Amino acid sequence: MCELRNNINESIPEAQEALEKWEQAQSLYERVMATWSLVRLIGIYLLVEKIQQDDLLLSPGVCPGCKGRLESKGKKPRSVRTFLGNIQWKRKVYRCPQKCSVGQIAPSDQHLQIHPGQKSCRSIKEFACMLAISLPYELSSTLLGLLTGVQVCPQTIWNWVQEAGKLAMLRLEAELDNINQEEAWKRPLCEDLKTQLLTIGGDGVMVPMRPEAGSPKGKTVWREVKVGLVAWLKKQTSKTGKHYLRPIQREVVAVLGDIEQFKPRLWLAALNQGILKAKRAVWLSDGGRGFWGVYSEYIASYATGILDFYHVAQNLCKGAKAWLDGRTNKAKDWFAKNRRLLRQGQSQQVLDEIQRVIALDELPEPTREIMITLYNYLDKHIEHIDYKRFKKLGFPLGSGIIESTCKWLIQQRFKGVGMRWSEEGFNHLLHLRLAWVNDTYFSLFDEEEK
Asked: How far is CA 370 from CA 250, 314, 315, 360, 375, in A?
């Protein structure tokens, strides 16, 4: 311990206070936090030492303008915020003696791939944006300070999110423009996926938006975000012996826009995941006409369409309440019977029963309209409600997987108390969240390395 103290005091004088706190810490929490502070200071020291050692070996090169020899201007300080904290060092700086308009040249900066005006390292941007993906900007700023010792204001984190999110949007637009030229979906399907089930679905979720850009004032405008999921599901067995389907690979899409904007995004994800080569594929959705239009136009040739069973049951329940009063035993029995018939693949019997109710002379007209709507709904999807066959084939009957995606992708981050979003701010953060989910997040920061 004495040797450690002497080495730190001699090499890193500013770490003395941190070392004293580390030695005096009693509880596990105090020791963890003190250790983390000390480790960061030691890390900064080692990092600066390495940067300065490399700087001694770097050649100044030649002037980019006249190609002449550069003139030394001595060493000048540089400071950059990093994941370890704020680091400061001195490095050699050169200028052209012919006064070419190239400014100061620091070989160390070029070697470290940092720009002349850069104040933050890629690592701190990545981590700050990672926090903002799940947490409000103010809380992200606070946690960033606690974990790294670097104070970055919420507005700066917001700016970083906008920058990375905008890049994600531009990349997606480029992929959509070249959707017919891409080679990714022409590659052979991974062996692990050939026997698995590809599931595709779409759903919508409302988000609170500002009525006017640039102003938080005014009444909240609710707009729908359309969310799509393309996932490979594998059959698993729980410890209790119950079988269930678990996602092993997925791609998520979302758009704050109409169904026409949603269609190519979902189709691109389906192509990326290998729909053209999938041996078993299903489409799962509730009765929204727009989403079933996506199925008809893009997916129907490759996948079996399944109308969410639980959504159908809800509509049956509405019919029972309208006809027999949902609180009566007769209504409960009628609902249970027809729900069971649907599950057993007897959809035509259910349609016949609804038609019989519609034909009753004493049926009130509002109730008749509800039952007609229910009949048309089931009749339109007659091919998509053969639940006995679907169950036998090992297909899921409910669209819970896509509904769950809507919750953790949209609701958890964008529907907090008092939250209202501008279209630009929402879209950039949304695409950053999508990049994280789809494993393209870190590539968004590669531009700074070029």
From this structure: 38, 13, 10, 14, 9
Provide the pLDDT for residue 288. 79
pLDDT at residue 428 above 80? yes
pLDDT of residue 6: 57
Whether 91 shows a pLDDT value over 70: the answer reads yes
Residue 186 above 70 pLDDT?
A: no
DSSP 13-82: GGGHHHHHHHHH--SHHHHHHHHHHHHHHHHHHHHHHHHHHHHHH----B-TTT--B-EEEEEEEEEEEE
- Yes or no: is domain 183-308+398-419 CATH 3.40.50? no
Domains of the chain, by residue range, sit at: 1-57, 62-119, 122-182+422-450, 183-308+398-419, 311-383
Buried b (16+ CB within 10 A) or exposed e, 220-255: eeeebbbbbbbbbbeeeeeeeeeeebeeebbbbbbb
